[in-house]
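The protein record quoted in full:
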Amino acid sequence: MRPARFQQLLLDATAGLPGTAAKAFADTGHTRHPYGIAVEAGGRTSLWQVVGIGAPGSGWSEPEPEPVLGTRPTAMDVPAPTSDPASVEHALVAALLAADPGEISAVEIYSDLPRPPAVGLGATIDFHDGSRIFLNHVR
C-alpha cells in the first residue's frame, strides 16, 4: 500500500466517525508533510502524518500493484473521538480496521506500547504485500 492510497482509505474510514471531520493535508494548506490528514474532534484539530515503506521489490515509480488480501487482524470497537489525540488515535485505527478489505496484516498502536516511540501517538500498519505505513501524530 502506498501513502496516497492509504491516505484516501483513512479519509474514507473516518467519514463515519461521529462528531469528527477529516481532510487531507493538501486540502488544509498543510505543506510540511506530503501525506496525512487533519482530524477535527471535540473542538480540537490533530494532525496525522502518513509515511510508507514499499513492498519488497516494488518501485515507487511503477504503478501500484493489485492489493494482496489475507487474514484480517482482530477488529476493535470504534470509540467516539474526543479532543484528546489519544482517543483520535484509537478511533482512526478502529475505523481503519473496520474499513479494511483484508489488506492489513497487523497493527501496532503506539499509545498501547509499554515504551511508545518518540512520536508518542500513532500506529504502524503492516500489509499482506509486505509494505508498511507509519501513522504519526505530528500536532
About this structure: The chain is about 20% helix and 30% strand.
